[in-house]
Structures are given as structure tokens and as C-alpha cells.
Fold:
Amino acid sequence: METSTLIALGAGIAVIAGLGAGLGIGIATSGAAQAISRQPEAAGKITPIFFLGVALAESTAIYGLVIAILLFTRLG
Structure:
């Protein structure tokens, strides 16, 4: 295979990190909503932990995007 093909393939695989982040955020939102609906008085403790988890999942997607952009700049 040519180098440009492998770089494009690697960039595509790096973008797949966004799928994992999307699934993680969805699962975290579901869990937080269920926990708050079961114990509404614990919402103050659940919400900050939820946002921390969402931020970590989103950073994974951003890392994948940055890697994909870096690889695409190598195609030229």
C-alpha cells in the first residue's frame, strides 16, 4: 500500500474515537438521569461527577480529531 493510503486509513480510524465518546456521553447521561430520578436529593452530588465524566469523554473525541487533522496534513 502507498503511504498516503495508510495515512488516510489512520485518520479515519482516529475519527472513530468520536463514536466511543458519543456512546460514553449517552451512557453517562442515562445513568445520571436514572440516579437523580431515584434520589432527587442527591442531584447536587451527581451533577458535578456527571460533568467530569462528560468532559473526559469529550476530550477523547477531541484527541481523535486532532490526530486525524495531523495525519491529513501529512497527505499533501
Summary: The CA atoms of residues 37 and 43 lie 9 Å apart. The mean pLDDT is 88. Residues 3-73 form a domain with the F1FO ATP Synthase fold (CATH 1.20.20.10). The longest helix spans residues 43-73.
